[in-house]
Design a protein that fits this description.
The protein is built from seven helices and 17 strands. It is of the alpha+beta class. It folds into two domains: 147 residues, Aminotransferase class 4, branched-chain amino acid transferase, N-terminal domain (D-amino Acid Aminotransferase, Chain A, domain 1), CATH 3.30.470.10; 161 residues, D-amino Acid Aminotransferase, Chain A, domain 2, CATH 3.20.10. Strands 1, 2, 3, 4, 5, 6, 7, 8 and 17 form a nine-stranded antiparallel sheet that branches. Strands 9, 10, 11, 12, 13, 14, 15 and 16 form an eight-stranded mixed sheet that branches. A hairpin with a 3-residue loop joins strand 14 and strand 15. The structure holds pyridoxal-5'-phosphate and 2-OXO-4-methylpentanoic acid. The site of 2-OXO-4-methylpentanoic acid has 5 residues, from loops. The site of pyridoxal-5'-phosphate has 12 residues, from helix 6.
């Protein structure tokens, strides 16, 4: 199989259309079989539920070329489960979990030439999503839905890759206590756009959101969960019902404990204790682990001892072990890798 002629090592995190995408439709109360198509365009009613009331959910996952040349994807069963949770919360029909994984596998298989080569630093990002497609004018769920999956080759989410970033504590909230922060709904991202544009205009790479009720606890960023390392090497991650349960974070906590023998803790993390941590990182499918060097709280700087030049030592070990598992250099726990044949 020949790879596409793409400058893999210089890719950013952007959209490059590939040859095929998967489409299935929910009509008259049932899903059709779905199929691959070359058509990247969607035609829908001007009054579609997604356009009027933002009834849309998505997932994000990746495919990798391993050191020995296989193509694999990472824990798609967990994305399928989370997609089901998201659908239920927005009153959408569930796309069956086994069909979800099948759609991912079929989409990767049909775009093998776009899976970046081993060692290029790039990966194939996969974006499954579902939206209300039939007309809705009174506020209620749509009747008909479309499920789609496309993929696009990507490089690092943050420019500079492994170089530590600077973030600010946002004055905006991302999620309400009993809202939708724990699911992957487009609406969560729409309402973070003003906050991220503001942060970028002020020279920051990302926002740290606090809990909306008390504004004393750390939640997450617009697209990743937090991991902290204490000065005595414990790995700590915030616990909250209004953050997205990151698959990368859950995997890293397992890796920290089972592969690196570190103590791990999922608990409430207070803004006031940020200054006591030794390292900080953002973790997610797109972000992998992006080190944070500095957090700015209304002019007050919290600088982590790991500095602005390199990842901290524990963050680096976590990064190397996780990517080692994903690229087939380190043995994966049972069921974590699904091979695309
Ligand atoms: N938090 C938010 C808000 C996200 O959008 C993402 C990305 O998917 C994550 C966390 C990380 O989740 P995962 O590791 O499952 O990609
Ligand atoms: C992902 O990591 O897959 C996400 O969906 C985050 C998004 C902000 C790109």
């Amino acid at each position: 199989m020949d790879k596409k002629n793409i400058d893999w090592s210089n890719l950013g995190f952007g959209y490059i259309p590939t040859d095929k995408r998967f489409v299935a439709n929910f009509k008259n109360g049932a899903w059709d079989e779905g199929e691959l198509t070359s058509d990247s365009m969607i035609t829908m009613s001007e009054c579609a539920g997604v356009l009027q009331y933002a009834q849309t959910i998505f997932e994000g996952m990746k495919a990798y070329t391993t050191e020995d040349g296989r193509i694999v994807t990472f824990r798609p069963d967990l994305n399928a489960q989370r997609f089901e949770e998201s659908a239920k919360r927005l009153e959408m029909p569930v796309y069956p979990q086994d069909k979800f994984v099948e759609a991912i596998v079929e989409t990767i298989k049909a775009n093998k030439e776009f899976v970046p080569p081993y060692g290029s630093g790039a990966t194939l990002y996969i974006r499954p999503y579902m939206f209300g497609i039939s007309p809705v004018i009174g506020v209620k769920p749509a009747q008909d839905y479309q499920f789609r999956t496309f993929c696009t080759p990507v490089g690092p989410y943050f420019k500079g890759g492994a170089k530590p970033i600077t973030i600010k504590i946002s004055d905006f909230d991302r999620a309400a206590p009993h809202g939708t922060g724990h699911i992957k709904a487009g609406l969560n991202y729409a309402m973070s756009l003003h906050a991220i544009v503001t942060a970028h205009n002020e020279g920051f790479d990302e926002n740290m959101y606090l809990d909306a009720a008390t504004r004393t606890k750390v939640e997450e960023t617009g697209g990743a969960n937090f991991l902290f390392v204490t000065k005595d090497n414990k790995v700590v991650t915030p616990k909250s019902n209004s953050i997205l349960p990151s698959i990368t974070r859950r995997s890293l906590m397992y890796v920290a404990k089972e592969y690196l023998g570190l103590e791990v803790e999922e608990r409430e993390v207070f803004k006031d204790e940020l200054k006591d941590f030794a390292e900080c990182g953002l973790c997610g499918t797109a972000a992998v682990i992006s080190p944070v060097g500095k957090i700015v709280d209304h002019g007050e700087e919290i600088c982590f001892p790991s500095g602005m030049e390199e990842m901290g030592p524990i963050t680096k070990k976590l990064y190397e072990t996780l990517t080692g598992i994903q690229m087939g250099r380190i043995e994966a726990p049972e069921g974590w890798l699904v091979e695309i044949k």
